[in-house]
Amino acid sequence: MDEPFLMRVEDVFRRGQGRVVMLTGRIERGRVRKGDEVEIVGYGGGAIVPVEGIEEGGGRHVDEASAGMNVGLLLPGVVAGTVERGQVLAAPGSVTAHTGFEAAIVLLSEEQGSAAVHTGDRLQFHIRTAVLPGVVALSQSTDALQPLHMGVVTVALERPVALEEGQTFAFRHHGRAAGSGTVTRLPH
């Protein structure tokens, strides 16, 4: 059985005079066919729309695209300002957006630009193509995570983004690369 379709949105283009938008990106898993319905997930998305067309590089139209391909999906009835980089297109109901999660993180060394992380610190999270701020809370037994250390944190993001347990991400602190992490638990 195929994995459910998931594509990260990298760019948004308005097509022609009508209300057709092309969302471009890389398909992470599954496949999509012309006529399938996809859900726009993250940043307040949630609309379910049909795929009117699929374009590969060079504007070549195809009837189907699968994991690993960079494509553009033509979606009718979507207003260009309602979709943006950082959202994902997914099989309806297969992925949900969250503003909070628990994660295991590891900090880079000081030489690589990392600094200690404390509860309440505001970090810049890079999740797929989304870049958004969030606030971390360390476990109660830890006052600070020092460079090169690992720990468990709870993250509160400013906007909802498509998340899955086991998903990896990177983060910046004070404008510099600081570390990476893996989502360990999502609220239910």
From TrEMBL:
Pfam families: GTP_EFTU_D2, GTP_EFTU_D3. Keywords: Elongation factor, GTP-binding, Nucleotide-binding, Protein biosynthesis. Residues 94-185 form the Translation elongation factor EFTu/EF1A C-terminal domain. Residues 23-90 form the Translation elongation factor EFTu-like domain. SUPFAM superfamilies: EF-Tu/eEF-1alpha/eIF2-gamma C-terminal domain, Translation proteins. The keyword GTP-binding applies. Coiled coil: none annotated. It comes from the Bacteria. This is EF-Tu/IF-2/RF-3 family GTPase. It comes from Streptomyces abikoensis.
